[in-house]
Specification:
The chain is mainly alpha-helical. The protein is built from 7 helices and no strands. Helix content is about 75%, strand content about 0%.
Amino acid sequence: MLAETICSAASAAGLGIAAITAYRKRFLAATRIAAYSLVPVGLVMTGVVEWVSGIAFKPVVWAGFGVLALSWLLFVTARAVERRTGGTRQERKAARAAQREAVAPQAGRAVKPATSAKKEQTRPEDFSDIEAILKKHGI
């Protein structure tokens, strides 16, 4: 009964604000305010408010929400761990097997890179395009 009274008072206050807004020649805003203010009365008339207030004050319902939250937390944690480790155990085994088949064995020695570090250091660097941009901007 208290919830229905509060919803009715909120709707009456909203309709009053809508009337003041319409008086100020802001009809579109007044229409929106009136629409929002009629929602609580509609919820009271359909019985939704009584149903929600009956649910909100039962401890079993809150325990159910706690169980649902725990379930959601477990799902999220499992998904995060799965992403971090690269999938399930079967997916990781299949990926390793595919990687072994794709790479040829290298007879136990490392391959040297084609370019050496000395060649990269001795080549002159060309900054002419950067200098042109700086000169263009007067720097």
